[in-house]
Amino acid sequence: MDFLLNWLVNIPGFATPFALAAMGLIISERAGVLNLAAEGFMLAGALAGVGLMIVGYSPFVALAGSVLAGVAMSFIFAIMAASLRINHVIAGLALVFFAEALTSYIASAEGWTNQAIKGLQPILLGQDIIVYATPVLCALVVWMLNRTRFGLSLRAVGENPAAADAAGIDVTAMRFMAILLGGALIGLAGGYLTVVVSRIWVDGVIGGRGWIAIALVIFARWHPWRVLVGAVLFGCIEALIPRVAALGVDIPKYFLQMTPYLATLVVMVWAAARGTDRWSQPAALGQHHIREERT
Amino acid sequence: MDKTAMPVTPTAKPRLRLVPLLEPRQRVSDRFNVLVYMASLAVATALSVGLLWLAGVAPSDLGREIATTAFSSPRALGSVLAQTTPLIVAGLATAIAFRSSFWNIGLEGQMILGAIFATAVAVWDIGPESLRLLSMALAACLGGIIWIAGPAYLKLRLQVNEVITTLLLNYVAFNLLLHLLYGPWKDPVSSFPHSAQFEPFERLPQLGWQNLNWGLPLAIILAVVLWWVFSKSRVGYLIDILRSNTTMATAVGVPVLGLSVASILASGAVGGLTGFVISAGVEGRMTQDFFSGYLFSGVLIAFLGRNQPFGVVIVAFLMALLILVGQSLQVFFGVPSALVQLVQGIFIICVAASEFFLTYNMHWRSAV
């Protein structure tokens, strides 16, 4: 019973970063931008959060800084992927590498590595306010995508950019904004990981969670609510890893640490084998829109 | 859409502004290609030098540092070439996959599996001693192939994005490596988390010049073979068709599936070989971080070398120089070690962004 309670209490903390990052990804991918840069945005948010805490700001300021850092990093990606129309895969990879390097450089230059910080305090049932805000944010994203003119334009750009362009929507601007908006949420996800969960910065602290979030989006077929389900599933796995020993099961430590990655692969294979992705994926995902010559 | 219905007020003055119009380029001349490439390298170099200046390394110091690191003595040049060897193999592994449009981001995982397989042959004393080194190399290739086979199958059969699958497998491979090094393969002599020292016949023999071993000639031979395959052979020609237009390639009877499978598995094999070259050549054992940074370097080398084998060799040399200069700057100027990575990051962003100028022709037109 103690074990179960202990496990359950820890799930939301692990699930929240996945949920936030995947929601951010959905926003940019519904606008047709194949966003492989999530890991980079998360690193930026994570470092900004830790840095602001170490400098002496409150956790809320730190998380706000994470959001801004995510936006700043996504700005570079947006210039490459939306404005310059670089292949989204190349732009995403280049950005992840750049973000890894930049965060590692800043962290070591400022001496922020391996410094413990205090972190955000829980408010109710052992959970902090971001955990409670996540479903609300999810509802907001659903409302924005499905009930607002902005969301309609955003989805139009992701499904049929040529038609959207003909209807007077600025495709480039729309994608640019979708990337920034997504970057804000992904940056927050990164900040949550360090400010609330790990409470410390080490290089590569995100540990592939940005990539897992990308897989979650595919698993959720680009729908925000289903992403919450997937995030809780992965939260369960991650929260279980440190507690398996308490169950008396003898699995070598490093095999346990493989489980989130293996689970992600299983989820991707399952999603692909189901074969419905072709219909749920935004039709123009990863495609550039070039308006032909006009006078 | 509401805007179109808005009545145009006659008093509103037409405001002249310039808007860019993009036109996809039909063909790019070699001259323009080189020009854009050089310009992007120049921008990246300028940014990097500026950044170093901010970090306290003046350009004159930097120049002296580069000259000392590479060309002050045969010994210095030897060190750069020794560092170049695994980078060439890593760059080739990535370039093979990129050439057939398979985004292999799993180089580190393939390196780890390659090293694990090679070390298994060494630790378990498989085969006669005279063939040990060869069996280790072949085992390393096999390890790399096994690690890339899953993503290849998923990509070709179920269209699962290979960027994510290959990348996630890096984490799996890393945990497998740690399990072995902290468990069964821990060094029995020192009980440090690295494998036991390889026997002399399990290590790449020395060349006899400086501290270079046979890894370098092997890497160059591999580059020459790949150059022949890509530029001279029928297979290379078919791969070019495949890359430029898969639909057309299928229509004209190119064995698309077979070629893709072969290129992807070859990329994995060379990735595994990279692990072998480092373990059996540089370290003489399997360590827990021999692979770190190679994914990044491999992608950048393939990218800057335009997936051409000789381009890879040249860029690998420059990358080795950068790494060693970075190490010495760290010692003498106290610059953080992540600096090398940051310079690499700046280069990859600049070169990626320059693709725009090769792909599109931009006109500025006035719009009202």
UniProtKB/TrEMBL annotation, chain A:
<keyword id="KW-1003">Cell membrane</keyword>
<protein>
    <submittedName>
        <fullName>Uncharacterized protein</fullName>
    </submittedName>
</protein>
<dbReference type="Pfam" id="PF02653">
    <property type="entry name" value="BPD_transp_2"/>
</dbReference>
<keyword id="KW-0812">Transmembrane</keyword>
<keyword id="KW-1133">Transmembrane helix</keyword>
<dbReference type="GO" id="GO:0022857">
    <property type="term" value="F:transmembrane transporter activity"/>
</dbReference>
<keyword id="KW-0472">Membrane</keyword>
<dbReference type="InterPro" id="IPR001851">
    <property type="entry name" value="ABC_transp_permease"/>
</dbReference>
<dbReference type="GO" id="GO:0005886">
    <property type="term" value="C:plasma membrane"/>
</dbReference>
